[in-house]
Amino acid sequence: MRRKMLTRTLACLIASGLGALGWALIERRLPRVVEVEIPVLASGHLTVLQVADSHMLRTQDWLETFTQSLDQLDPDLVVCTGDNLGERGALPTFLRSLGGLAKRPGVFTFGSNDYYSPVPKNPLIYFGGPSIAKQRTVRDLPYKKMAQELRERGWTEARNQSALMKIPMKPSKYGAGKQATVAVIGVDDPHINRDRMPAVPEGWDQADLRLGVTHAPYRRVLQKFADLRCDLVICGHTHGGQVRVPFFGALVTNTDLPRQWADGLHRWFESQTYVYISRGLGASKYAPIRFFCRPEANLLRLVPKQ
To answer: Counting Cβ atoms within 10 Å, is residue 13 exposed (0-12), middle (13-18) or buried (19+)?
Structure first.
């Protein structure tokens, strides 16, 4: 009798595990748009579309089609926070996926998977802290070509750089349309220690929006953005934990932030700086799963402060 109970229990566990794995493989192909309202402006209304962590493969029609469809959201500004490539040879697919978004005002920075192609990793290393195992030296992804292509499309580079942008605002219930001044300051990926905070652009204090951009949300970087009085910092990298437990949330963040900061909108402690962390759209080809953590693009509706 006891042996039969143990056999049934083991069979149930195996079936549950296989079912969870099957769903995780399906869920990664169910991207959605998450809309969030953030009160950071003095007046007016700006819509910012964040595209994060595509990890695009050479052939990935479903993700390419979904990303192209985001142009229908009619954002005022597109912010791409990196980890765009999932393997060598995927740059044409990623650029094609931008579709009409590439014709809109845009800002970009890079993550580690814009420099280095992914490699298999033991998933248990994530429980010991950020997944920086061996320092790689050969940058085998076409990051220079990608940066050039994005700049030629008119996008503003924020890899350890800052800039002042003029973004048309649409008329809304928050006021008539006008041209907003957006001061952007960004860093290259802190996850691989490429971050160097630049000087703020001229006109920083008078800007309608002071925007910080980084791929990975590490404490040292977020604190610097807050010290500069950024209104909003946009990040990706965490995948929202990628695997989440119902009623518990993310297990890891792959940064030095607590797991409660794996995704979503947060206020950086006592500062006036908001931080938004996206779950992103993709996953490494060596871990192509999402569990209770649907992939997402993010439409950030920036509205007047209360």
So the answer is: exposed
